[in-house]
Amino acid sequence: MKIWTKRVLAEGEGLHGRARVMAMFAVALSVLLSVLDYAIANVALPTIAHDIHASPSSSIWVINAYQLASVSTLLPLASLGARVGFSRLCRIGLVMFVIASLLCASSHTLLELSLARALQGVGGACIMSVNIALLRFIYPHAEIGRGISLNGVVVASGVALGPTIASAVLSVADWPWIFLINLPLGAVAMLAAIVYLPRTPRSESSFDLVSAALNVMAFGGTIVGLDSLVHHSGRVVAIILLLSGLTAFVQLALRQAGRTDPMLPIDLLAVPDFLVAFGVGFGAFVASNFFIISMPFTLETLLHRSAVATGLLITPWPVGIVAISFIVGRIADNVPAGILSSIGLAITGIGFALLCFLPADAGNLDIIWRIGLAGVGFGIFQPPNNRAMMVSAPPGRSGSASGMVSVARLAGQTMGAMFVALTFSIVDRDPNLKCLELAACTAGLSALLSVSRLLRGTLHPSSRPGVDAGI
């Protein structure tokens, strides 16, 4: 299928047969490239810090630069995608990601590497800001849950494969090769994106550069300011950054008020179904980061496992997500998110709670099945909740909704990391155990919020503003 012969698809029309399979392959490979590289860099951080002569604390910016650039640019890029086309922005992101990977591999200082990682984060944000929006054109409306579930499988697979690939690469080559392997993968993803991704409608409105700058200042200032306060580094500067970020948020909200397709789509939060799904997603990822960050310390310090054993013992978390997602994807279009997501988060919370009661002499099997149970629950929660966000957005707002799905995830992960750091700083006795307790509580509260969808009567998964009203 040649790209110049493609017609523009209507939202919800979907592709069929081989066209759908190949389009989904292009999206999946693009998403995998973005997620995989983030996971690989985490594992390789100690080696990178040693080789570029950076301290452990300062080397964290190799990770933070990527995360901060991603979350700060997600919404502007989602808005840009609606104007230039979701497929085109995905291809732009792939080009940027590959170029940034080459720059990462050739970096010799922490500053060079951090800047290259920030560019890589922007490339990843181009992909992640439109990937779910593309699914609304690849899959018919009645089957969108399958596409979202498969997308979740790809993300979880990237997280699961990251440590293994990083260890394999570092065992035979220097750390720059963890970035160089992106070149052939990126080339294949680019070819697939050019040939198979569908053309999507474009918004006629102009791109608001001032709002984009305010968005970057808002997210960047708020996140860096909060992080600095938590880590007690430069309290005055941290407060200035935090206030600047909050001021930028207010200015951005005022500037965007009344627009039909705002860059900061807080108007979507006025849709009750969307607001609940966003809150559930945010809370769930806060809970997951309480677990993901603290559990390695629990395994090594309290349960006396080696670093290698710790990595293997955490693997059931992504494996559980991947394994159950195939099943959930088949029923997410027919069972309400208020049921599926609530059950999933309840199971996740139970898994976290059971980890709190691990005996000091716990065997590996005792650890594995508890972590696996939590992962299965998370795999049940995620696809239907993401689907609920996408289908509750008004028609024509796919880009904004897709961006908000990623914002819920990244903001939850970021706040979860900050809460972990805060817990470590204020809890003297068993802070790791306290983090697991907070993970269980947060997952439980998110499950209760998810149940509220049933109490409000939003039972049918296909309900969407404007659809039932015939708009």
TrEMBL record:
Transmembrane segments: 21-40, 60-80, 92-111, 117-138, 150-171, 177-197, 209-230, 236-254, 274-295, 307-328, 335-355, 367-385, 406-424
Subcellular location: Membrane
Keyword hit for Transport: yes
Keyword Membrane on entry: yes
Cross-referenced InterPro entries: MFS, MFS_dom, MFS_trans_sf
Domain Major facilitator superfamily (MFS) profile: 23-464
CDD domains membership: MFS_MMR_MDR_like
Topology versus the membrane: Multi-pass membrane protein
Top-level division of the source organism's lineage: Bacteria
Keyword terms, alphabetized: Membrane, Transmembrane, Transmembrane helix, Transport
Descriptive protein name: MFS transporter
UniProt source species: Nguyenibacter vanlangensis
